[in-house]
Amino acid sequence: MPLMMFVYLLCGAIVGILANYMADVLPRHRRFTKPVCLECGENRPIEKFLTGKPCKHCGKKNAIRYWSVILATTMLSIASGFFPAGKMPFIAVEILLLIFSVMVITDIEFRVILEQVSWAGYVAAALTGWYINGFTKTILGGICGFLIFLGLYYLGKAFARRMSRNREVPVDEEALGFGDVNLAGVIGLLTGFPYVLPALLCAVILGGLASGVIIIVSIINKRYEAFQAIPYGPFIILGGILVLYFYH
Ligand SMILES: [Zn+2]
Prior knowledge:
Blueprint: H1 2-29, H2 46-50, H3 63-82, H4 90-110, H5 115-133, H6 135-167, H7 178-191, H8 196-220, H9 233-247
Helix pairs in contact: 1-3, 1-4, 3-4, 4-5, 5-6, 5-7, 6-7, 7-8, 7-9, 8-9
């Protein structure tokens, strides 16, 4: 037990460092480069990156995000090591933890889920889903998740067009980005059919509740702006994980 605890802890910390690295370099260069500063794009020495020190060129502080990501992935690695969702193998847990962490960070920081990260997600989720649910359920789940969110995506676009026509101010914040559509496909592969349906329903409900809370808080603070988009990615992932625990 103590040995496994140490393995989960170590893997979680490594995943956290890698997630920080990928969420810094991928939005800038779309490929793996030396560690860079997300703000100014200057290279950062590896030891400065590994200790979460501020950028010496522009002064951007990195410590809070860096250490909170590592803390979160370490705790999630330990939790899912001892209680794996959907009887997932350990290696799949760690790889998916990395991919989902990068998605959550870039979604919160830029409201974007990068295409490359989505593709990695498709591959990892397809293999894991195949292992858990077999081939047919996995493929059906992926197609189902993708198509449902594609429908919601076009619905959101039509709604935004309508609203901007009425208000003469363009609504350019998309409620749902295409990254969310890909993520719904990834979660579909991972949970399989028909479990993808409660997973996405959970995501929509949780995301709706969070939007509601944000709107109420911003009305109280008198800073309400209609149509401010919240990052939906974390809720889609959460819906998938809840369903994996519940149905498998
Ligand atoms: Zn900088």
